[in-house]
Amino acid sequence: MDSHCASPHPSTPSMDFKIASLTPPPKTVNTEPHSTSLTHRSVSSSQYFQILTKEDHHHDSICPIPPSPPHVDGYSSDMSLSVSEVIGKANDGISTRLEHGDIRPNFNRNADPCTATGCKWRKRGTKVYVPIYIARSYSSAERNIIIRGLLTFHASTCIRFVWRRFQRNYLYFYSGSGCWSYLGRQRRGQAVSLQKNGCLYQDTVQHEVLHALGFHHEQVRSDRDTYISILTQNIQSGLERQFEKVATNNLDTPYDFDSVMHYSNYAFSKNGQPTIVSKSDPNMRFGYATTMSANDIERINTLYQCCE
Ligand SMILES: [Zn+2]
Q1: Average confidence (pLDDT) per 10 residues, the chain, 308 residues
Q2: 308 CA to centre of ligand 1 in angstroms
Q3: CA 186 – CA 241 distance, rounded (Å)
Q4: pTM for this model (two decimals)
Q5: How far is the CA of 183 from the centre of ligand 1 (A)?
Q6: Ligand 1 (ion): which residues have CB within 5 A?
Q7: Which phi and psi angles does 129 have, rounded to 5°?
Q8: Catalytic residue numbers?
């Protein structure tokens, strides 16, 4: 077992980094998401994996699963809107082709869900390094919202976002139309759209990044019919497919109404009536997670074998 997984008493992750440390290195890469990458053979490992911040030593214990990452003041979502409402609002009327509300069909045109290993980011040693590039069109405050969202993954998983230098596959954050992501690792520069004035909230960043790490929406998972009912008669016409079940890999985690990947009761409602209700408690209000749940974190750690 990896040493950072050995402690039975995980400490609360610290988030006491300084904004100054969030400034990316001056020599970032070209701005084209699909440009040809250079070989990395000429750079050392430390140059190759330049982690967003040096807070790693604060986070020695990620297994067993620690509490959810703390909120970062000022960057949590507007409490009046759920993640799915934020996404639904931002994506309303955009021409980008999306499935399930905010997922771009993948490059391989593979209808199969991203389940086992095909779309995972590769692990090197004990960490999974995911290179990123953040478009220069964001202000530094906007960049920092994205970075702070990414750092919440460092706090409780073995995912480490690194500034992209020469790596071939990476996430390219930019302000496109709406909030969306591909499902799992694709090829080369993989866009994650986080529109300014619409998608820049910690929970929305986490949600779209979880898609890019390979995770689907909670309400479409394979066993959802045991836990929820989909009220098709209340769904906006033409959006019924967004609620279609997917053969997900649930990684032995329970159905989780508190997942940041769960849509709210009224997602894509056409008449103000709920589109999703809990079978065990029809009055349950859900889909208002403001950060990753313990289950969201456990799924990452299981899929990426963070504790092995
Ligand atoms: Zn989504």
Answers
A1: 40 36 42 32 56 50 48 47 90 89 73 59 93 95 94 95 93 97 90 96 96 94 96 94 90 95 94 96 93 95 91
A2: 28
A3: 23
A4: 0.79
A5: 9
A6: 102
A7: -90, 120
A8: 208
